[in-house]
Each structure stands twice: as C-alpha cells, then as structure tokens.
Amino acid sequence: MMITKVEYDGFCDDAPGGAMQGSIALIAGDTRINVSLTLPRRIEITQSRHRLLLLAEALRQTRHMPEYRSKGAIRLAPGFLPHGLSPKTA
User: Is residue 10 part of a domain?
Assistant: First the structure.
C-alpha cells in the first residue's frame, strides 16, 4: 500500500489537562485510513517535526491493525518525506 497523501484534523487545545485530540488520515488511492490520536501535551501542529512524529505514530498503529497487516508493506510515496529523511524499513 503506497501512502500518497496525509491529512491532519483536530489537535486543538480544548481538551482537559492540556491533552490534544485529533486524527490523521492516511490516503492510498481509494483507501482512506483514519487513525485517532490523543497527545498528552500541547504541540505546534504547524511544525514539520511534530507532523512527522504524528505520522510515524499513525503508521505504527496502522501496521498493527489486522485489516491492513495482511495487505503487505505500507510505504510512503517517493518524495513524500522532506529532503534528507528516508523511511525506516522494518
């Protein structure tokens, strides 16, 4: 499965205790995988390093979902990551 687009939704500062809730949509062709995440503290969602950390967590969770575990490798489309970063192969 080749991820070609990622959408971030939520992650507003309105949750109790400083936690932030939101979801990440991993899009691969006609497949859309929504991963809900709760962050223990506030982050700046506009910073690319925080977006990459959220993406890594969404990919980790997706790899453990039974409906996607059997469909082979989940990969990012070429040129998806910023220059200088390469995907970790497991």
Answer: yes
Predicted TM-score of the model (pTM): 0.74
pLDDT tens, residue by residue, 19-34: 778 899 999 889 899 9
Instruction: Please name which of 9, 6, 11, 71 lies closest in space to residue 33, comparing C-alpha atoms.
Output: 6
DSSP string of the chain? -EE-EEEEEE--TTSGGG-EEEEEEEEETTEEEEEEEEESS---TTSHHHHHHHHHHHHHHHHT-HHHHTT---EEPTT-SPTT--PPP-
In the chain, how many domains are there? 1
Contact 63, 88 (CB under 8 A): no
- Rounded to whole angstroms, the Cα distance separating 81 from 15 reads 30
